[in-house]
Amino acid sequence: MILSRCLGALIVALCSAAALAQSVAAPPTLAPAADCETTANVTWSFTYTVNPTREFGRITNLAGTSIGSYDLTSTLAGGSFNGTWLQPITIVQPANTVIGSYGGAGDSALSAANTVEFFVLYNCTTRQVLYACSGSVGSCPTTAAQGLARISAPIPVRSPLALLMLLLTLMLSAAFMLRGRPGVAVPSSSTR
């Protein structure tokens, strides 16, 4: 059962990587005009075999507030896009706000087979890009909070056995260090 799930996950990962290689040419970058007040524009490129029917975008801050969004009929034609994707900010943000700029193009029914997306997480004052992603829909975070979660260090999870071994080692080390110290009674195995 576990083996079949692992093989299934591997097949999905390989198929997703193949779709990504065919549809998205390069990772997205923050466009020169992106700021805290007017735009969260992104420069990216992708190819397509069927003209997309819709274009969409959503800009969020870490609080989860949508500070700009749109869903429009696509005007793309010709098999490829290479340029600046316009992402208007409608709610001005204070300096140093971390913004997530998400967008894409595809058919009305979004699926990995027919929709490409991008995501850029950045500080709107310093313009430092913290995380960038592009690929088939479902590959990238869609909000600033989700983007931050991708770059935050995970807390390591230890197995109960590893924790038990760590505690046992700690207790044995303490007993060894206290052995022979004056004023510290260490139980003896000898009987009187």
Description of the structure:
By secondary structure, the protein is an alpha+beta fold. The chain has a domain of 125 residues: Sandwich (Immunoglobulin-like), CATH 2.60.40. The N terminus is likely disordered.
Rg computed from alpha carbons, rounded to a whole number of angstroms: 26 Å
Query: Based on the structure, what is the oligomeric state of the protein chains?
Result: single chain
Task: Determine and state the CATH class of the domain at 27-151.
Answer: Mainly Beta
| Overall morphology | elongated
End-to-end span in angstroms?
60 Å
- Mean pLDDT, rounded to whole units? 81
Q: Strand-residue fraction?
A: 25-35%
Strand count, sense and barrel status of the largest sheet are: 5 strands, antiparallel
CATH architecture assignment of the domain at 27-151: Sandwich
CATH level-3 fold name of the domain at 27-151: Immunoglobulin-like
Low-confidence stretches: 1-22
Based on helices, strands and strand pairing, what is the structural class?
A: alpha+beta
Our count of helices gives 3
Element string (H = helix, E = strand): HEEEEEEEEHH
Write the layout of secondary structure elements.
Elements: H1 2-23, E1 24-30, E2 42-47, E3 54-61, E4 66-73, E5 80-85, E6 98-106, E7 115-123, E8 129-136, H2 144-151, H3 160-178
Antiparallel strand pairs: 1-2, 2-5, 3-4, 3-6, 6-7, 7-8
Q: Summed up, what is this model?
A:
The chain has 192 residues and is of the alpha+beta class.
What key attributes describe this structure?
192 residues; Immunoglobulin-like; 5-stranded antiparallel β-sheet; elongated; disordered N terminus
